[in-house]
Amino acid sequence: MAAPHAPRTDDWWRDAVIYQVYPRSFADGDGDGTGDLAGARARLPYLAELGVDAVWFTPWYASPMIDGGYDVADYRTVDPAFGTLAEAEKLIAEAAGLGIRVIVDIVPNHVSDQHPWFRAALAAGPGSPERELFHFRPGRGEHGELPPNNWPSQFSGETWTRVPDGEWYLHLFTPQQPDLNWAHPAVRQEHEDILRFWFERGVAGVRIDSAALLVKDPELADFEEGAGPHPYIDQDGLHDIYRSWRTVADEYGAVFVGEVWLPDAERFARYLRPDELHTAFNFTFLTCPWDADRLRRAIDDTLAEHAPVEAPATWVLCNHDVTRTVTRYGREDTGFDFATKAFGTPTDLELGTRRARAAALLTLALPGSVYLYQGEELGLPEAEVPRDRIQDPMHFRSGGTDPGRDGCRVPLPWNADAPWCGFGSVTEPWLPQPEGWSGYAADRQSTDPGSMLRLYREALTLRRREPGFGDGPLTWLPAADGVLAFARAHGLVCVVNLSGRPAALPPYERLLLASGPLGAGGRLPQDTAVWLRT
Prior knowledge:
By secondary structure, the chain is α/β, with parallel strands linked by helices. The strands form four sheets. It has an eight-stranded parallel sheet with strand order 11-10-9-5-2-1-13-12. The chain is globular.
């Protein structure tokens, strides 16, 4: 068993490495084909050996699983597919014993249509107090047959659904995810109670899903591109909600990370003021192509966004919604955009893997905290899930044109020679593992010095041990075209070669780590990164 490492204290979140677990696909402890908390508990020593500071779990609450658990029916109950509340409490305690904090996911924009509040609202009828907790409205048109407004969906499809009594309700995602009315005090109180419920069980932080969508224009006016504030994104009323939440978190020493997709840097930074959220995800870097100039600009813009509020940046290459890094970096278009996802996009996995290794060192050398999605440390590619096995609602609401997000959610390979690559022992996983998946198994990679897993373990060990990593200043160094080179404190230097030819390294005393072997004369090959001590 891995030895526990000392947990970080005080502002640990400013430069933590946080591992994201998608429970359905992480590890199956009871053999039913679905990942669960028993499986996650059994793999905690693996995460301790990897060297992460915290683990973020996507929703494990009671849910019909229409949208992978982001349709919550009861926040105070763990879904039976994952285990029990008592098991969640054991996981939190066992992780703490290994020096690992636990972060949970809250989905405040909406609930499941099976949530008691929504079921009561449907039963109560128009004009009832129960319906005031949601956005129920009469329709437009002569007989109310048209939706109340023209708001676009966050998925494909419509944003309003009509119920038998003639009223319509708002859902920015699927019809099974009705939006809550955050102007209602009961909605605010319930979510503060939910925060306390989990903080009292030892949770160290909360990731806030769709954090910029909660507050709606009270008039529910039509959406007009470029005509004034967006009616449901980044409404000013959000900040009062998060200031109130911050008061709750401070009672427990807990932290927040917000999912905030905003193009306006100044508006984005408002969420990170000292009395609001601690951190927010950095989607500029996540979606950036493998291009030196654009990556440098993304890094500079990110640090500039955070500087006025003195908040740490966050860095992430992939998550449960995004094409896996190895696949994306092996494509002609190495950026990411939901709108351009398509079936059958060719990729060069050897090239993508080489770039993903270099990107790992780049990301872990930047100032701030890093989020690592499960399986990235194994170099997993995006899986091509057969159409008849796809479960993601994004696929179905697009009319079948969007491959959806299941390709990055395929269950992990743990043991090369075990059934289902060691994910579970009895039943086929809920999503099929592609041919060749065993080649990425963690047990094989553990003994291979050149594997992606060993690279991540070495990098995280150095990041924890060596001075200069984590929060703090970054200084760009002179470098050839297509090469990124920057210095951190204590003589730490990171160099990444994105050009088409080998590059000379600056003078150094010690090579700490390289994503691949150096070339002739100690030059840095293309798509390779190094950490140096100068």
